Amino acid sequence: RLASYIVFLHETHRERNLHSEVLVESLTRSELADMIGVTQRTLIRSLRELENRKIISLDKVGFIIRDFPALKYLSAGQ
After folding, report:
1. CA-CA distance, 62 to 21, in Å (whole number)?
2. C-alpha span between 78 and 41 (Å, rounded)
3. Is the pLDDT reported for residue 20 higher than 70?
4. Residue 63 forms beta bridges with which residues?
């Protein structure tokens, strides 16, 4: 779910012609967890896993995608 959301965020940035390396996320961790239907604890664990696998990096204001093909693969439920 988290991977799908980050892919969606990436595509939204691209549609708006935002070429920034950082995908800005204005939701709190709690709001994001509620939105994608997981607990805050699961969200944090998922973020940490994606970061440890070097798929994303976390930034103060959002996410940096480091391996988009891997993120797309995960978002497809693989």
Report:
1. 10
2. 22
3. no
4. 23, 58
Helices 2-15 & 40-52, crossing angle to 10 degrees?
70
CB 43 within 8 A of CB 7: no
Tokens for 36? Answer: 């994608």
Model's pTM, two decimal places? 0.80
DSSP category for residue 25: -
2 conformational bin, left if phi > 0, alpha if psi -120 to 50, beta if neither: alpha
Amino acid at 33: A
Query: What integer pLDDT is reported at residue 16 of this predicted model?
Result: 57
* Phi, psi dihedral angles at 63 (to 5 degrees): -125, 150
